[in-house]
């Protein structure tokens, strides 16, 4: 069923990704309005008539989440799923369940699971969109492709709200709105990087970094983390990459402290790349510093970090 009109069969293969989620008439309307593909939120570059059967679901853009949502969305089924998943840890079970419940997804209600998720990613409901993004994160179902889609839509909604809101509201309200957009930019940049979309990763990470620096200053945590994400997505030699990370670690240690989590994440990334570059002794020293700092700050055993170097 077309996810726009909810009446006709989907018949247009939308380019550039080839997703078939809308009928021809609705696709033409989307193009006329310059709206993005309702599935991946990318700008439409044309369409072909026909159906690409792998465009959604288990063989498509977000297989991990679809599988889990299908198991969860079955009446009381999700209660058993969460209880089994967390082996009696009620606090964790309830934390997951609360996020899932926000989506309002259920089998047999509102169409297929795919249609219900598409309904969320095409909505302006920031509460549901943020819940969907959270459910796609590494902490939950780890579905990076749908995470990108969710954050793209969040950015679209926030940008429209900013355009409409403009200079309305008190100074604090306008500042909070602007920072919310920058936070979404940073999250989208990081999500794009995780799926190999480095061009958009750089674009959104730079927008976040520049915005933070303008609003808050160059040496605050958000701006420095934005710089870190921008380095992650940059196209440079490993030697240049290492030098950039070394310089950033020094700035972070001076401004944020050696035991700041963002500093330690950057230090860990530096160690991994030193190891990949064959600088084994320096990599070992850097990774051990990162590990010791994390264990002190978080109070947990993170020995796997040392193994990240290969």
TrEMBL record:
Residues 2-41 form the RING-type domain. SUPFAM superfamilies: TPR-like (SSF48452). Pfam families: TPR_10, zf-C3HC4_3. It comes from Triparma laevis f. inornata. Keywords: Metal-binding, Zinc, Zinc-finger. GO terms for cellular component: cytoplasm. The lineage of its organism: Eukaryota, Sar, Stramenopiles, Ochrophyta, Bolidophyceae. The keyword Flavoprotein does not apply. This is RING-type domain-containing protein. One of its GO terms (molecular function) is zinc ion binding. It comes from the Eukaryota. The keyword Zinc applies.
């Amino acid at each position: 069923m077309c996810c726009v009109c909810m009446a006709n069969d989907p018949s247009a293969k939308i380019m550039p990704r080839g997703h078939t989620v809308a009928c021809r008439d609705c696709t033409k309307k989307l193009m006329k309005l310059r709206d993005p593909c309702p599935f991946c939120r990318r700008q439409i570059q044309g369409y072909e008539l026909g159906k690409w059967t792998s465009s959604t679901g288990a063989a498509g853009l977000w297989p991990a989440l679809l599988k889990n949502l299908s198991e969860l969305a079955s009446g009381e089924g999700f209660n058993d799923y969460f209880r089994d998943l967390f082996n009696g840890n009620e606090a964790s079970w309830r934390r997951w369940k609360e996020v899932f419940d926000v989506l309002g997804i259920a089998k047999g209600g509102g169409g297929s699971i795919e249609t219900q998720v598409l309904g969320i990613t095409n909505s302006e409901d920031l509460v549901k969109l943020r819940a969907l993004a959270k459910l796609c994160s590494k902490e939950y179902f780890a579905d990076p492709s749908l995470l990108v889609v969710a954050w793209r839509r969040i950015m679209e909604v926030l940008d429209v709200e900013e355009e409409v809101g403009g200079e309305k509201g008190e100074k604090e309200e306008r500042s909070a709105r602007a920072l919310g957009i920058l936070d979404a930019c940073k999250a989208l940049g990081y999500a794009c990087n995780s799926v190999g979309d480095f061009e958009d990763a750089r674009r959104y990470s730079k927008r976040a970094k520049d915005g933070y620096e303008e609003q808050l200053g160059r040496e605050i945590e958000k701006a420095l983390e934005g710089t870190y994400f921008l380095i992650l997505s940059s196209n440079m030699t490993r030697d240049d990459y290492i030098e950039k990370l070394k310089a950033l670690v020094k700035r972070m240690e001076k401004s944020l402290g050696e035991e700041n989590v963002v500093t330690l994440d950057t230090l860990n990334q530096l160690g991994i790349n030193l190891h990949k570059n064959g600088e084994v002794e320096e990599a070992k020293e850097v990774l051990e510093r990162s590990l010791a700092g994390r264990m002190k700050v978080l109070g947990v055993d993170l020995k796997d970090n040392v193994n990240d170097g290969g």
